[in-house]
């Protein structure tokens, strides 16, 4: 390829952006919102939604709770580790998780908040409750409130996805109402010493679930790998929410809506001594939901994979990333 062709290609790729979509459009023209969301997913696997409905007070209380928890002494935090369950609830210490295919652990620690199930739920057999932190009495109600707010907003976004896929708007409703969804409170500690060789805050990976909703992505570092092979900076305006497709949605749509590789880079030197916090919400279908490629997506040229339940797929992937034996 000539130098001029390479330059033209670089210019074209540089124009690829993830443009924010106003959630106000959902209230006035659901079909138009669904098309914008679906096209963004189809092009990059990511979307940015501004004007979301998550209450600022709910976010602020969860932020304060998260920061208070991560400031606790390490022995106290480690009381809330549940390695036997693949760290699906409670605390995961620094450098516990690695991206699939990477031996180097990510430079992060995190807390997992799960769904509050009713006493009679059959899903209790494999979905544990979230431990309450005795040292921080406000932690549990603050994180539960954010979990429920994100869960509700994610359900609305899935209605838009359903419309984009020419399904009934409420197609996902009864398939995610008791899903094994997780609110992850992430802390990337300051980088004040030597960084392990190859160590990054979050190595290149894909998410396991249907869709991920991310609050707290205003600080630089989050990148998505475009299908052209270039890394796109995901620059989210303040007050917006970043949404991306997970592997389960990719499998359900036979690859029409791709689960895009993404990463969190180490900070620039001037930001290295500062912590970074974020709050991804991993929206999962119910454990017994069978992920079977949609016929309409296969008709569009998608490739079907074998059917598998959401629970079995999750267990398989947790083993891949070192969280479950």
Written description of the protein model:
The N terminus is likely disordered. The protein starts with a helix and ends in a 5-residue tail after the last helix. An eight-stranded mixed β-sheet has the order 1-2-10-7-12-5-4-3. It is globular. Helix 3 packs across helix 6 and helix 4 crosses helix 6. It has a single domain, classed as Sandwich (Jelly Rolls). Strand 8 and strand 9 form a beta hairpin. It is of the alpha+beta class. The chain has ten helices and 14 strands.
SSE order and pairing:
Layout: H1 3-14, E1 20-22, H2 24-28, H3 30-44, E2 46-50, H4 56-70, H5 74-77, E3 90-92, E4 109-114, H6 139-164, H7 173-176, E5 182-188, E6 202-205, E7 211-215, E8 222-225, E9 231-233, E10 240-245, H8 247-252, E11 262-264, E12 276-283, E13 290-291, H9 295-299, E14 308-309, H10 310-320
Parallel strand pairs: 1-2
Antiparallel strand pairs: 2-10, 3-4, 4-5, 5-12, 6-11, 7-10, 7-12, 8-9, 8-11, 13-14
- Secondary structure category: alpha+beta
What is the fourth-level CATH superfamily?
B-lactam Antibiotic, Isopenicillin N Synthase, Chain
Percent strand equals 15-25%
Which stretches are low in confidence, meaning pLDDT under 50 for 5 or more residues running? 1-6
User: What order do the SSEs take from the amino end to the carboxyl end, as H and E?
Assistant: HEHHEHHEEHHEEEEEEHEEEHEH
General shape: globular
Q: How confident is the prediction overall: mean pLDDT? A: 87
- Highest-level CATH class: Mainly Beta
How helical, in percent, are the residues? 25-40%
């Amino acid at each position: 390829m000539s130098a001029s062709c390479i330059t033209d290609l670089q210019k074209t790729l540089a124009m690829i952006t993830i443009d924010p979509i106003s959630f106000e459009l959902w209230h006035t023209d659901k079909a138009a919102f669904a098309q914008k969301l679906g096209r963004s997913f189809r092009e990059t696997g990511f979307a940015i939604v501004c004007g979301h409905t998550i209450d600022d007070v709910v976010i602020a209380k969860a932020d304060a709770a998260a920061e208070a928890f991560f400031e606790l002494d390490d022995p106290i935090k480690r009381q809330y580790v549940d390695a036997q369950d693949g760290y699906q609830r409670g605390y995961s210490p620094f450098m516990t998780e690695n991206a699939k295919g990477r031996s180097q652990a990510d430079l992060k620690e995190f807390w997992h908040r799960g769904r509050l199930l009713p006493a009679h739920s059959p899903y209790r057999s494999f979905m544990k409750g979230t431990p309450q932190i005795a040292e921080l009495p406000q932690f549990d109600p603050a994180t539960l409130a954010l979990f429920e707010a994100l869960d509700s907003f994610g359900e609305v976004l899935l209605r838009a996805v359903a419309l984009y896929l020419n399904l009934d708007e409420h197609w996902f409703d009864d398939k995610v109402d008791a899903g094994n969804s997780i609110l992850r409170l992430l802390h990337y500690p300051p980088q004040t010493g030597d960084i392990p060789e190859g160590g990054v805050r979050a190595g290149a990976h894909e998410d396991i679930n249907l869709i991920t909703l991310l609050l707290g992505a205003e600080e630089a570092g989050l990148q998505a790998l475009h299908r052209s092979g270039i890394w796109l900076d995901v620059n989210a305006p303040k007050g917006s929410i970043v949404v991306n497709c997970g592997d389960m949605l990719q499998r359900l749509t036979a690859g029409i809506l791709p689960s895009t590789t993404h990463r969190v880079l180490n900070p620039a030197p001037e930001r290295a001594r500062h912590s970074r916090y974020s709050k991804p919400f991993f929206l999962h279908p119910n454990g017994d939901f069978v992920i079977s490629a949609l016929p309409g997506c296969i008709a569009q040229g998608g490739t079907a994979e074998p059917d598998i339940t959401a629970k079995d797929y999750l267990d398989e992937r947790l083993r891949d990333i070192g969280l479950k034996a």
